[in-house]
Amino acid sequence: MDESNKQFRHVLYRNAIGQAVVEYMQALTPNALAAHEESESTRILSQIVEIINDDSLSDPECFHYIAEIVQLLIANGIPVTRHEDCD
Fold first, then answer.
1. Count of domains in the chain?
2. Among 5, 18, 70, 84, which is most exposed with the fewest C-beta within 10 angstroms?
């Protein structure tokens, strides 16, 4: 396959993917998006409760709990800043 065919196919793929993204975003209603966000929030909060109830993580300063919760938040795409001394 020559270079111009490769470029043409690449443009077609990009256009097809772009169109699919636009259609997907248009299909998302505010209510559907809100329901998804609420579901994700509930799932993450449930996992935080599980971490807090995990007796194997206990330490006087709660560093183990904090580390687990921070890891959970980061794993779910929630940016977290913390002091370097806590790492």
1. 1
2. 84
